[in-house]
Amino acid sequence: MNTLACIRFALAASLLLTLTACASGTLLPTDYLHSHQIDDKGTFDLILYGGRNVHDLKTVAILDRDGDPYTIVPFGAEYFSRRLDNLPLPEAFSKGEQFIANSLYYSTTEIKVIKGPDGSIIGYELRPLYMSLYVGGTGDVLSTAYLLKKDNTVVAYITRSRQVHRLFDEDDFDWRR
C-alpha cells in the first residue's frame, strides 16, 4: 500500500469514527467513477456547496437524483450552499463542473457515485482535485461522507483533510515564528 493510500485510509477511518460518535444514522457507501461518462437518464437537483471565492477549497457539487425516496442536504449553514432543482443530467453535470472549476488551484474533476442502502445510485459527487504544489502537497483536499437519517434525509458532511486544514487554518497561523 503506498503512502497516499495509507493517508486516505487513515482519514476515512477517522472521519467514520467521528461521524458515528457525533450522529446516528447509516453511513452510505461511495465509489470512484473512473470514467466521466455517466449513462443515467434521470433528472437531478444540483447542490453547489462552498465556492464563496476562488480560494475556497471546501467546494463540491452534488447531484441528488429526483424521484427517489432520499433527499441529500449538506451539513452546515444554508448560506454555504444553493440548490438548483430538476436539471437533466448533462446540464447538472456541466453546471457542477463549472462551479468546482472556479478556483485558482483547480486541476481536474473527480466523480464519486453515492449509493443508497440497497446499492442503488442516489446521486453523484463532483469534487475538485487541485494542483498539489499549491495546496499542501496533495491534490485531494476534501473528505466527504453521507449519513442516512431515519426520515430518508442524507446529510452530506464535507470537510478539508486534516493536513490541509492545519496548513490553511488562520487560527493556527502565528506570524511571529
Looking at this protein, list some descriptive labels:
single chain, 177 residues, alpha+beta, six-stranded antiparallel beta sheet, four-stranded mixed beta sheet, globular
Describe the overall structure.
This protein has one domain (3-169). With 177 residues, it is α+β, with helices and mostly antiparallel strands. It starts with a helix and ends in a 9-residue tail after the last helix. Residues 170-177 have low confidence and may be disordered. It is globular, with a radius of gyration of 16 Å. The longest helix is centred in the N-terminal third of the chain and has 20 residues, at 3-22. The chain has three helices and ten strands. A six-stranded antiparallel sheet has the order 2-7-8-4-3-6, covered by helices on one side. A four-stranded mixed sheet has the order 1-9-10-5.
